[in-house]
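Worked example 3. Consider a protein that binds 5-amino-5-deoxy-1-O-phosphono-D-mannitol.
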Amino acid sequence: MCGITGYIGNEEASPILIQTLKKLEYRGYDSAGIAVMRNGKIFVRKMKGRINSLEETLLENPLNGQSGIGHTRWATHGEPSDANSHPHTDSGGNIAIVHNGIIENYVKLKQSLQSRGVVFQSDTDTEVIVHIINYFYRSGEGALLQAVMETLKLLNGSYALAVVCSDYPDRIIAVRKDSPLIAGCGAAGSFIASDVPALLEYTRDVYFLNNGEIAVLYEDHIELRGNDGEVILRETARIDWDAGSAEKNNFPHFMLKEIFEQPKAMENALLPRLKKSALNNPVVDFDEIKLDESWAAARRIVIAACGTAYNAAVIGKYAFEHFARIPVAVDLASEYRYRNPIFDKRDIFIVISQSGETADTLAAARLMKQNGARVIAVTNAPGSTLSREADVVVYTYAGPEIAVASTKAFTSQMMCVYLLALELGRFRGHIADEPYKKYITALSAIPAQARRILDKKEIIQRFAARQYNKTKMFFMGRQFDYPVSMESALKLKEISYTHSEAFAAGELKHGPIALIDDGTLVIAFATQKELFEKMISNIREVSSRGASSLVITCDRVDSFNTITDEIFTLPKTEDCFSPLLSVIPAQLFSYYCAVQRGNDPDKPRNLAKSVTVE
Ligand code: M6R
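Given these inputs, the predicted complex is written out as structure tokens:
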């Protein structure tokens, strides 16, 4: 939650801070602010509202200076307000900080500072930090860096922090613990940011700061230090993302752009893992994973994840059990970490996370590791905390996902788990050559099929224009269609704020049918051929109770014609792979409902892209 940024160099800082903040707006957008240094003084401009409003204020009344820090906020402690916006300063206005994270012991620290006469200007947890830095700095602990290091010893919780001090106009001090932070040096100067897209325009050579590491930014170089202040020598990592991938290009929203990037994202996940066998047949082969005795002997796979990544994990369960005949336990990472799970050395442990920074998922991975597990991370974010802590990293290669609602990350996560399941199924002797070839052919066709679905987006757009006002929308399906229903309901509630739920269609009569009336829309996925008849009955059951419905199917369109309001036909694929296609019309539906309702799909209320706190 929250994005922080910093710049020191040979150009005006304000426009750079605003540009970099805009790239981080997906992390939080209820208030924004910057602090700029000029002639040994710190000038702060901050306010409730979006970065655009801050930018307009700065255009009318500029802040000049060639170094500064910035913040875009997702409120946790203290309502969104001008006073609670970052940067926060000490009482004399000589030190300013921006912070992403949560200081868990701030109440105690605040009381202690208040008893020493410190007057607080905000309700935030963050403000304690700047007063403590000031306390150490003024009480003769020496240099600013020393004061920052002393302060860190008192803080419990998570932080990515940037600090400027009017006595040190030549530097910015930045540090992180359990919240992401990168630092990079480019032609215009040195930068920090919470995430890579913010810096792509300025530099490709970055340091991914490790927990406890401090970066001291100067105009022409960056000094890395450990938590005791010792200098660390390390090479920067090179980022090869295309700068355009973090731009909207001609799309009205990032979400729509990312929905349309899915064919490419799925190809990116698929192609590096498709190799030729000795007999010139295509085979799945992950360079990252060598299947050995431990995979042959594995008794169970355990997968933990949150949100959309959790829904991809449920697809993983169905796929691993289908192809590799191995039981899979799937957990919400937030539950897993607290429920004293059972560890067996023979199990295979996987965590899935787009950002690689989700607090609960990281905690689940750490718990697995503490118990001796080898953790495989499926993630989209090179350099993320998860990618550095996991034993094996499977990258999804979807490119930067900016919209809060995850779309291309989901389909590329699914592609990765399908491929892993196929490879494991073959390795464990559960898939014969012919079906294996058939599955590979089907997977290879998916990106082109996804493009054909996107070509029909108007069908969904028109349907959304007719239905977006419904107050209840439900999604149902069986087998592989059930996790797709879960993901579709999540997407819809996130950006359209419509009450939506998913249920396994077989559960309809066990309760959910009581909710069905003429104000309900039901979206039914019917892609599992063996279960067509069952789905036809379920759709009849909701239609006869007055619900409107949309059927997303790949076959037997005639059977649905008379019982539903709209049919969306998917290209034909293997039943087990249908989620890779069927989720796309559902994503489009959520997107168009949000737009119809006047919501900003890229920045849904109360949500942030990366949940780095509990
Ligand atoms: O970065 P992660 O994949 O770990 O994020 C997990 C969830 O927070 C995320 O999927 C969230 O549910 C999205 N907003 C879904 O659209």
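Take a moment to read the result before moving on. The mean pLDDT is 94. The pocket of 5-amino-5-deoxy-1-O-phosphono-D-mannitol is lined by residues 306-309, 353-355, 358, 361, 404-406, 494, 607, 610-611 (CB under 6 Å).
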